[in-house]
Amino acid sequence: MKVLVAVKRVVDYNVKIRVKSDNTGVETANVKMSMNPFDEIGVEEAVRLKEAGKATEIVAVSMGPQACQETIRTALAMGADRGILVLTDAELQPLAVAKILKVLCDKEQPGLVILGKQAIDDDCNQTGQMLAALLDWPQATFASKLELGVSDARVTREIDGGLETITVTLPAVLTTDLRLNEPRYASLPNIMKAKKKPIDTVDPASLGVDVAPRLSTLKVNEPAKRQAGVKVATVADLVAKLKTEAKVI
Amino acid sequence: MTLELVPARELAFQLYDVLGVEALCQRPPFAEHSRATFDAALETAQRLADDLFRPHNRKADLEEPRIENGKVRLVPEVKAALAAFAEAGFFAAHRHESLGGMQLPWTVAQACATHFHAANVATFSYAFLTIAAANLLEVFAADDLKRLYLKPMAEGRFFGTMALSEPQAGSSLADIRTRATPTPEGFFRIEGGKMWISAGEHELSENIVHLVLARIQGAPAGIKGISLFLVPRFRPDGAFNDVRLAGLNHKMGWRGTVNTVLKLGESGDCRGWLVGPANQGLACMFHMMNEARIVIGLSAAAMAMAGYRLSLDYAKNRPQGRAPDAKDPAQPQMPIIGHTDVKRMLLAQKAAAEGALALGLYCARLVDEQKTAEDESERRDAGLLLDILTPIMKAWSSELGLKANDQAIQIHGGYGYTRDYPVEQLYRDNRLNPIHEGTNGIQSIDLLGRKAVMADGAALKLLLAEFRATAKAAHADLPDYALALGEAIDRIETVTLRLLAGREAHGGPLFLANAWAYLEMLGHTTMAWIWLTQALAARPYADEFGKGKLQACRYVFAWELPKTKALADLLASLDSTTLDMHEAWF
Questions:
Q1: CA-based nearest distance A29→chain B, Å
Q2: What whole-number distance in Å separates Cα of residue B213 and Cα of residue B225?
């Protein structure tokens, strides 16, 4: 079975995000970028499927400027077999990404598509769901456990009330949650091996996808500064403050 | 969010903008590489260091190694971190592909290493001691020894040590007493005791490979009668090799690194195999000395960087006091970074940490040049530059690095003096670096007594020519610095000639009496030079990073380089105050 994983290049999780002075977006110039951590979990899961003999080939897809090739190389160094770079300088919103992935799925015919449940830059949490709808495939989102069968997959999902276990028929779309696995480090020998793995470059137009944004960003602001806390003397004081000041109970 | 101890951008600047390491990819050993593979290796190193080395740095410091049921017990995180380090291939990062290596340039491998030095030097030491021991075996060991030991060391299954010192012979290795007796089977029987052996006994690896200095029976006295032996903890057939743990040393820092007293051949059954020619043990050791001392200097730089980054973060977030002209007590306090004297201490740390890092990576680049430059004369020149820069890198970086950690504590105030903040441990850990691998005093004698005068001063001339070339390159854009560096170079030339004349007239003891001042003068000048190279390389960056580089360069030229004038005066006067002091007058 072929597994397709989507990997997004985002501002590194360790970088303190700064809003551009003109409030049009987030500063990304000279900022460390790396693979979206949820997507790392996706790559790791695919590699484990391959190591268990359940997957035969892993295709890593990224979209954006040329630098996204580095993100694909990271996936290749973790164990993916080949990459597809959808090269564009346009702003990509979840719907456009889902449409591109749909075309690639039509072409590649994977048995499973794995995406992060969301990207840590825009936190949209939409692409996997949109892709499943466009493909008309079942979706298993927020996965914390995957047991892959021949024609279906048993997936444990993290939901508000606890854990939900569902079965989806394949092909299907899976989005990863944090507890699915702990991604491996790209080892030095595998970094060298990844150099020799192929990456195809395509562009959205050649895939017949119009990526024009459907949403426009009006303004990006820093979140409000957190107020200093106060110490309370007793539990009763705390409860009173939660009731009267915070009004949360 | 984790604070970056050694920022990825700083390393990228040093490697690509200052040192141009991408050019190395043109050479056959590195032909498979590109900036992408270098960056990927650096990223893996940083993540591994942050995820698995940094979190137990304090725990391993608090829970010192101890002996339990005859075995050394360490906190379990040490083994897990080193296993991941091995799994990721870092034991063989710079080694040939045939040994499972990545054939990474030494410069890039050392840049990766800074993340581990900064995160947890005590745990990392097990790895870098192994790598250093394996480097020595790769050059000098016979093929059968290499087959048995080198590959498992490159895989991180066997660890290594340097077992040189003895209780009566620390700096003075000529006085070691451990004996080696030849046997008809080809190996030697080893008998003696070793002191200060880091990683000398533990359960972290399948085997421990000790590199032991010993005297073969009948060998000449002094350094010309010392040979190097490979002494494994377990022999190839698995038998115990009579290397016994006699005790542990309890240290100020590096406490996670077990430091041992070893007895060899107490039961008369310790076998050692000769490495390199008989009676050439010290020469073999010294072959690796440049690299080992650069590693020490880089370790000091990385810890200086960690202290700088931590105290910078603290200074930005600790509100205390108000500006000198703000009289209103109702105004909120300002973060202490607003106080000029705090900025002074941060600038001093930035200058020390980033300067020593730049110099260490420059030296590492010279190691790559020495091994892979196409032209024979380029390789020779790289070797000469390395010879003279090594004592400066080792001693000056460890001197400045420790001072930087001192300032990191100072910025933290009383909190910095407590064990609730990490800077006091950095200081204790970094305090080792002026001592080991040849004390800084020995480095200064090596610099003036050997390196500056060897081959008719060829190495010094070459180094000063490098300095002059940078001054010339800076002439158009940074003329004041170019001029000041030029004057400092002149001072070194004048003082060196004066010292040599003094040696002719008054002999060696007076010549070497102020060797430390000579090292300080060269240290300050070398730092000014390396900062000028950084300022030149930072010209394309108009952002805060580039401005910070320029300002730190300005600091070095305003505050540090002028100190060479007083040092030059002292040296040129052939002052004999220290020499003339009598023991009884103390």
A1: 10
A2: 10
